Amino acid sequence: MRILHTSDWHLGRSFHRVNLLAAQREFIDHLVTTVRERQVDAVLVAGDIYDRAVPPLAAVELFDDVLHRLAELGVPTVMISGNHDSARRLGVGAGLIERAGIHLRTDPTGCATPVVLGDDHGEVAFYGLPYLEPRLVREALDAPAAGHTAVLEAAMRRVRADLAARPPGTRSVVLAHAFVTGGAVSDSERDITVGGVASVPAEVFDGVDYVALGHLHGCQAITERIRYSGSPLAYSFSETAHRKSMWLVELGAAGAGNPAAPGGAALSAERVDCPVPRPLARIRGRIEDLLADPGLARHEHAWVEATLTDAVRPQEPMARLTRRFPHVLALAFDPERSPEDPLASYARRLRGRGDQQIAEDFVAHVRGGRGPDAAERTVLGDALEAVRTEESGAGRGTGRGGAEVAR
């Protein structure tokens, strides 16, 4: 079975001040063309279809367009909601849409009800695990704790129980939207930290033939059978080095795959590149050097992030840079400082520290060196988590046994 794995479309998102709707439409055209020309048997979209809970009308129209086009091709499509999506809104009409071969999985309690497709080697069960907000789905999934690992393990127990009751040789694919340990992050993914821990071990997904992940925006393989497709477009300058693509996965017969997983299906994966609307570039240095350096000519047609290191902030830097780099979108200042400069020392002390560590360091500072004890660290963690929850609460609500999250 030939499977096209994609995720993190973020329809409706812009890149700094640039509207990306045209680029997203070009990607959708590319997706549909790939499905048709490569004779894809199933399309998987692993969450974050929209960029926010209440997307703009143009984004909804684009999503409606791709649903119709995939349905016309007669290729089954399985989609899950991500942490940016409103699960309840995205899932409206799922039962009706399913009749057209579009399978929306947005209710966590339905994670063990697969979409079952067949090929010459038998059946393949596709299990959709939408983004699981731990505090909202813990009870519904009978998870022992409100953490990412706990709720995903609870969901996977249900998946394995259903799979065990199916005919021998049934192959399995899981779609999930999560941060799996070992994945490389970028600046454009919103934090899903709960209790200071966001990542889950890859072993959570043991026992299935392929795991189609969403959330991280870089295309990458955690293992041969656990992969992120990444976002089809760059949504931050931290993705400058990304090669945007989708995974075209060939799932073969059961029993012909990984020797370490008896009964596992044979599997191969190929990257299918996505269209690039405009390359990205990060440039750094004193403004006069950036304007004069001939080696930077290759970036004159790119979207540019410029970091100026001048000791004194130059006059009208954006206007001057734009004359050479007409698509400069972001400007930052990082003045060159001597090691004795107190501002440089402060920046070094903060580098690489998370909110929890900075808060604990502050407590130690005002107490003359005595940091918080275990109970106080818990209070600080709960307070920081409450702030994160409040900031991400817009558009959140609970639905039938599930969760609705906008982050």
From TrEMBL:
Function comment: SbcCD cleaves DNA hairpin structures. These structures can inhibit DNA replication and are intermediates in certain DNA recombination reactions. The complex acts as a 3'->5' double strand exonuclease that can open hairpins. It also has a 5' single-strand endonuclease activity.
GO molecular function: exonuclease activity
PANTHER family named among the record's database cross-references: COMPONENT OF ATP-DEPENDENT DSDNA EXONUCLEASE, NUCLEASE SBCCD SUBUNIT D
Domain Calcineurin-like phosphoesterase: 1-218
Start-end of Gly residues biased regions: 394-407
Subunit relationships: Heterodimer of SbcC and SbcD.
The keyword Metal-binding is assigned to this record: no
Region (Disordered) location: 383-407
Domain of life: Bacteria
Every Nuclease SbcCD subunit D C-terminal domain range: 277-365
InterPro entries linked to this entry: Calcineurin-like_PHP, DNA_Repair-Maintenance_Comp, Metallo-depent_PP-like, Mre11_N, SbcD, SbcD_C
The UniProt record lists the keyword Hydrolase: yes
Entry's family note: Belongs to the SbcD family.
Key words, A-Z: DNA recombination, DNA replication, Endonuclease, Exonuclease, Hydrolase, Nuclease
A Pfam family assignment: Metallophos
Upper taxonomic lineage: Bacteria, Bacillati, Actinomycetota, Actinomycetes, Kitasatosporales
Name used for this protein in its record: Nuclease SbcCD subunit D
